[in-house]
Amino acid sequence: METKTATILDGKALAEKIQQELASQIKELQPKIGRPPGLAVLMVGDNPASAAYVRNKEKSCSKVGIASFGKHFPKETTQEELEDAIATLNEDEQVDGILVQLPLPKHLDSVKLLHQITPNKDADGLHPVNLGRLVREEAGLRSCTPAGVMRLLAEYDIPLAGKQAVVLGRSILVGKPMALMLLEADATVTVAHSRSQDITSIIRNADILVVAAGIPGLITADMVKPGSVVVDVGINRVTDHSGKSRLVGDVEFAPTANVAAYITPVPGGVGPMTVALLLENTFASYLKAAKEKGILIDK
């Protein structure tokens, strides 16, 4: 029997396209506004994965013409020092987006820090005000990873209205905002998690499956509905018996690609989209600030 391989949802290519569009818009607007957009990424300590993510974000900023105001703090930095740094950035007119790179050292309260960021500069789209706007379907900055997933589905003209969507994972970073965005697109949404009973039968009904569990290879081909859309948000570093490490998702890619109609690869799927949407959020804040000052007028 002939096996059909799923169409790859190429997040890397779409992220590249978004960055090119942003670069051209920034080039056009910067002379009118008098400055480039600015993004500040705050990192505490020396977590190697975090350092790599921050370098990647700064490189992407530079590529599109966004100024980086990154701040790297020693591991011992206090909550008060970080709150003061955020307060300064909130007032800085050169800065349009602020994000705190997670995870933080254990003595710091990441939720309290997130609450300190002014909602209009919340580049990660995770402030309670922005999450509230999402719930109410109002304009606002959206959480980057789920917003990136929605853009990827739209790019491939995947219909969502009336479809059965299952989100595996209920984190505030991905699962909850993802479910709300799918609901906003008129999908019928189920959120499954570690306490859900008979997860396989829930997943098996999904026309659209978004997996954000953080467990390598959790989803196997036999769990997936034939002809469905599988979006793998998981990024897990695994080491094989020879000591080589590589990145894998939460979905067993090759076998599932023979069952699904569409699938995201890891790496190269959702990851690049998260960074692209972070840049888009920063640009959106930049435009909003310029309009509020009367520098740009809505046509």
> Structural class per helix/strand content?
alpha/beta
Total DSSP E strands:
12
Question: What's the main sheet like?
Answer: 6 strands, parallel
> What is the general shape?
globular
Helix coverage percent:
40-55%
Radius of gyration: 20 Å
Distance between the termini: 57 Å
Strand order of the largest sheet: 1-12-9-8-6-7
In oligomeric terms, what are we looking at? single chain
Order of secondary-structure elements: EHEHEEHEHHHEHEHEEEEHEH
**Average pLDDT level:** 95
Walkthrough of the structure:
The protein has 299 residues and is α/β, with parallel strands linked by helices. The protein has ten helices and twelve strands. The model has no long low-confidence stretch (mean pLDDT 95).
